[in-house]
Amino acid sequence: MSAKIIDGKAFAATVREKVASHVVRLKADHGITPGLAVVLVGEDPASQVYVRNKGKQTVECGMQSFEHKLPAETPEADLLALIDRLNADPAVHGILVQLPLPGHMNADAVINAIDPAKDVDGFHISNVGLLGTGQKSMVPCTPLGCLMMLRDHLGSLSGLNAVVLGRSNIVGKPMAQLLLGESCTVTIAHSRTRDIEEVCRRADILVAAVGRPQMIKGDWVKPGATVIDVGINRIDAPEKGEGKTRLVGDCDYDSCAEVAGAITPVPGGVGPMTIACLLANTVTACCRANGLSEPEGLTA
Ligand code: GUN
What we know:
Layout: E1 4-5, H1 8-30, E2 35-41, H2 45-60, E3 64-70, H3 76-88, E4 94-97, H4 107-111, H5 125-132, H6 141-154, E5 161-165, H7 172-181, E6 185-189, H8 196-201, E7 205-208, E8 226-229, E9 233-236, E10 245-248, H9 253-259, E11 262-263, H10 270-289
Parallel strand pairs: 1-11, 2-3, 2-4, 5-6, 5-7, 7-8, 8-11
Antiparallel strand pairs: 9-10
Helix pairs in contact: 1-10, 2-10, 6-7, 6-10
The structure holds guanine (GUN).
Guanine binds at residues 96-99, 121, 141.
C-alpha cells in the first residue's frame, strides 16, 4: 500500500480562509477586529522566526497583531505586568507568550497569569482542566490541527484505537484528551512503554510526538492506519552537500508510507496547521468575549 498524503499546507490554507471570512463578518456586522498579542522574551533565532510568521499571518487574515519584544534579562515581574495590561486591553482577544522563556522565569507562573479566555495556546491550568473534563476550553494549537486533519480524513473517529506517542503537556496529553472526546480508545505510549512497537501496531490512528528523528518505522504501523507525524527534527543531509541539513519527522516517512493508509509529511503536514489553529483560536476567543456564535469548523 502507498499512503495517501495528508496535505497540511493546503488544509492550513483552507483554515486561514475560514478565519479570514469570519473576520470580515465580525468587522462588517459588529465593528470588531480580533487582535492577537504575541510576546517574545529574548533573541532565540527559531522563536524570532515563529513570532514573525505568526504576526504576518495574523495580519493577512485581517486581524490586528500586537508584538511585544522584551530583552532576555527582563525581570519576570515586568513580563507579568505586561500580561496584566494585555489581559485588560479590550482590543486584545488572544495572548501568546512564546516558549521557551529565559531560565530565570517560571513558565508556569507566566502562563497562568494570562486570562484563560485569552489563552489561545490553551496552556493555562484552567483550560487544561476544562479540556480534561470535556468542557469548552481553549485547545492547544498543534493537537487541534491534528484533530482537524483526522476528522477531515476519517470522518467519525468513534471506536477507533488511537495511540499517542509522547506525553508532553503541549501535544501528547491534550491530543489524548481530544481523541478521547471523539470516543477513540486511547493509549499514551512513551519512552518507558514496554513493547512499544506492538502497542503502535494496534493503532488505527498513530500520532507521533516524541521529538526523535525517524524513530517510528513502517513495521510499527498497522496496515491502513492513519499516521500523524508531529515531529520536526533537523538532521544532517550530506547527500545535499557538505554541512547541509533537512527536516524530518518522528516517523521514518518512506517505510511508514508503504504501510499506512494516510500520513502527514514533514515538512508540510502538522507544522502549517499549528499557526492556522492559533488564528482560529484567536477568532474563537474574540467571538466568545463578545457573546457571539463561534466559527463553524474552527474549534474542537
Ligand atoms: N514554542 C514552540 N511552540 C510553541 C507554541 O505552540 N506556543 C508557544 N507559546 N510557544 C511555543
